[in-house]
Design goal:
about 425 residues, alpha+beta, six-stranded antiparallel beta sheet
């Protein structure tokens, strides 16, 4: 076969999602940004047409992404360059299942945002809490990591590990930069943040759903055109307590639905003080005649820090763990380690006690950190392989910071996953 001179030979097949028709697709392939915009558009078409073949394919693609190709931070795009399962060349791409590199993960900011956009569409057509869970994971982790605390410098790629010896690719940077030659990510990020309030609530057939939590006032109309006004008070995501007061509403009964995140096991909901248990990973529906200016909903989501491990087929994180609290993924960074320590020296005890978050007014504008004792090793032999020997350890009281806040204190090493020392 002779290609036309206008054809870019690397931009064909799985790279551009054209090997397999969408309605027959079961695996997310190729350029992650192109793919996720493509899937989001298909979800929009399904919303208009109700074509069953589309939603069946999108369900399979969503499951493949979330269960076999998405990072703990909600990021997408496993590699700079690689091969698809059909052995097509792919770039900035979804590659094969469970190929989840830490240091070499691509995770373009745009792809992470597109993941949230795709899930927002799926939330709109299916109304299931799992889609809002992904939106939240992206926006608090792999989206925000694309911009610094000051809001003026940006990352294009968002790895889960970085060391000083890492060879930078064309779109990698040791620290965030004010201008990126391929300048798609910065405006995409800031416009998504600007419109995120519109994703926080959804109108339902008989009321309203609360998808995302944060202090706000909502004034809108339900589908029957009746007015509703809610106020939400919370320090989320640092605290799992949320208060929602009904300020204005119609006299007839209607639903207020609260998303209970998958991680929020043991959550309770109280209406005017009467408490009920809520199931994680669902919407908790309250149907009643609401008293405007009087009814208060109290949602309490436990936020115990926990260690998270990956699927057994993810080679890069075998016998490693990450720290997570609520929707926030944490990392450890060299500014918080002893001098001359690198991230490969850090091991995390399986029984580590992570103290409740400390909101440090002096730390990057007041972020909540976690404290815990890790183990450090000085075993740094240069040999590729060597005989296993017993290592010596020293303890260190470490600080874990939100992943999205790394690289705000100059060039540094960072890791999300750390080897486990079983206790």
């Amino acid at each position: 076969m002779t290609l036309d001179p206008t054809v870019r030979p690397k931009m064909i097949g799985d790279m551009t999602q054209e090997r397999t028709p969408l309605r027959k697709s079961e695996e997310a392939v190729g350029h992650a940004v192109l793919a996720l915009y493509y899937y989001a558009g298909a979800a929009d078409i399904y919303a208009e047409t109700g074509e069953q073949a589309l939603i069946e394919a999108l369900d399979k693609l969503w499951g493949n992404i979330v269960n076999q190709k998405m990072f703990i931070t909600g990021a997408c795009g496993q590699k700079h360059d690689g091969g698809s399962s059909n052995r097509d060349f792919v770039h900035e791409a979804f590659t094969i299942n469970y190929e989840m590199h830490n240091a070499h993960s691509y995770n373009e900011t745009c792809a992470n945002l597109c993941n949230a956009m795709f899930n927002y569409r799926m939330l709109g057509v299916k109304g299931e809490a799992k889609y809002a869970d992904v939106i939240e994971t992206v926006m608090y982790n792999s989206a925000l990591s694309g911009i610094d605390i000051g809001g003026t410098n940006f990352f294009y790629t968002n790895p889960l590990r970085r060391d000083f010896d890492h060879k930078m690719g064309e779109t990698d940077y040791p620290t965030r930069v004010p201008y990126i030659p391929c300048f798609c990510c910065p405006p995409n990020l800031v416009r998504t943040i600007a419109k995120l309030s519109a994703w926080s609530y959804s109108l339902t057939k008989n009321g309203i759903a609360v998808n995302l939590y944060g202090g706000n006032t909502l004034e809108t109309n339900l589908l029957d055109d009746s007015e509703i006004k809610l106020t939400q008070k919370t320090d989320y995501p640092w605290d799992g307590a949320v208060l929602i007061e009904v300020k204005e509403s119609k006299k007839e009964a209607f639903d207020i639905m609260l998303r209970i995140p998958e991680w929020a096991k043991g959550s309770t909901v109280a209406i005017n003080g009467k408490k009920e248990n809520a199931t994680a990973g669902t919407y908790f529906t309250i149907n009643r005649k609401w008293k405007k200016g009087g009814d208060v909903i109290s949602l309490d989501m436990p936020m115990k820090p926990e260690l998270v491990v990956g699927h057994r087929k993810i080679e890069e994180v075998r016998n490693q763990a990450a720290v997570k609290r609520g929707p926030i993924v944490y990392c450890i960074e060299t500014p918080d380690l002893p001098e001359n320590t690198n991230v490969f020296d850090v091991y995390i005890p399986s029984n580590i006690e992570l103290t409740p978050p400390k909101k440090e007014s002096e730390f990057l504008g007041g972020l909540s950190t976690l404290k815990g004792t890790v183990m450090l090793t000085e075993d740094r032999g240069d040999k590729m392989y060597k005989t296993l020997e017993k290592q010596t350890w020293k303890t260190f009281d470490a600080t874990f910071i939100p992943y999205y806040a790394w690289s705000n204190r100059g060039a540094s090493e960072m890791t999300v996953f750390m080897p486990i020392l079983w206790e």
